[in-house]
Amino acid sequence: MADRGGTSSGGGGNGAPELAKKSRKPKYSRFSQQELPACKPILTPGWVITAFISIGVIFIPIGLASLFASQRVVEIVDRYDRDCIPRNVSDDGVGFIEDAKANKTCVRTLTVQKQMKSPIYVYYQISNFYQNHRRYVKSRDDKQLWSPKNERSSSDCKPEDFTSNGQPIIPCGLIAWSMFNDTYKFSVKDKVLEVNKKGIAWKSDREHKFGSDVYPKNFQSGALIGGAKLNSSIPLSQQEDLIVWMRPAALPTFRKLYGKIEVDLEPNDNITVIIENNYNTYSFGGNKKLVLSTTSWMGGKNDFLGVAYLTIGGLCLFLAISFILVYVLKPRPLGDPSYLSWNRNAAGHLN
């Protein structure tokens, strides 16, 4: 009879060893198994209450300081897009703006409520303008803005890339084409207030994004004018209005810096503003505002940061007091920490 204990595998009966089974078990290391020495604090009531009190004690003074600084900022906001249209065409703002023969000059009077120390920052504010739209943001050519060797714009600038004669437009794209073109002139008691437009753009943009040897070319030369025109004799690195505009805003309501007034304004001063109402926000239902603002150590007027710090700090103090009352009125014994796994076994595993 044949030996039933013999091997039945093909290739002879030499007793070849069985192939080792493949294991998916990862290679052991203390790091991968989270067995390295670590701080594992036990959140006792005392630690939790102390942490909440510390956060409250730190956050509340910061919130008060931020809120106080924001309240010290003096701000004048004037919406002028509705009042700067004649009453007889108030229902047709688009037609008024597009009429080249219409007088766009508008005179506004602003009253200073509190002393405004220089520098006083002049902003224009636009709402319902989505500069963060993907196609709008991409409609530019950074290489063209930096070097005259790259004046042949990329396809991202369409339809504002070339003129009808095939000449490149510098700067190309919808962002530059739609540049804000309202103008403001200020005076107090018949004394002109000069607006300084130097240093209103980021230094990094002036020095690293816009070339000192790149000049506007064929800009706003088509039949449809989108916004402001540029002086072809001034390089892009010195045209700070353009540089400010070409940094797209993240939200549909935004402010951009127009310039700085470098004299103090006293309470009850009446500022006469001559506005050239040229920019078309009427076609997309937006509005325009003129903003004059001072600054503090934390920037412009913004109560949100101070309110946020006060809210978090007050909430932490409220929770700390609540935990103290609960701990005093209904105390519970703390469990024995020696039963925790990392205390029973140095490797972090149960025996």
UniProtKB/TrEMBL annotation:
Q: Which keywords does this chain's UniProt record carry? A: Membrane, Transmembrane, Transmembrane helix
Q: What is its main location?
A: membrane
Does Magnesium count among this protein's keywords? Answer: no
Instruction: Give Gene Ontology CC terms.
Output: endoplasmic reticulum; Golgi apparatus; plasma membrane
Q: Spell out where the chain crosses the membrane.
A: 47-69, 307-329
Q: Where in the cell is it found?
A: Membrane
Q: Which domain of life is it from?
A: Eukaryota
Kindly indicate whether the keyword Hydrolase belongs to this entry.
no
The record's region (Disordered) falls at 1-25, 141-160
Q: What positions belong to coiled-coil segments?
A: none
Q: Which family does it belong to?
A: Belongs to the CDC50/LEM3 family.
Kindly provide the name given to this protein in its UniProt entry. ALA-interacting subunit
Q: Which species is the source of this protein?
A: Punica granatum (Pomegranate)
Q: Which lineage do the record's taxonomy fields give for this organism?
A: Eukaryota, Viridiplantae, Streptophyta, Embryophyta, Tracheophyta
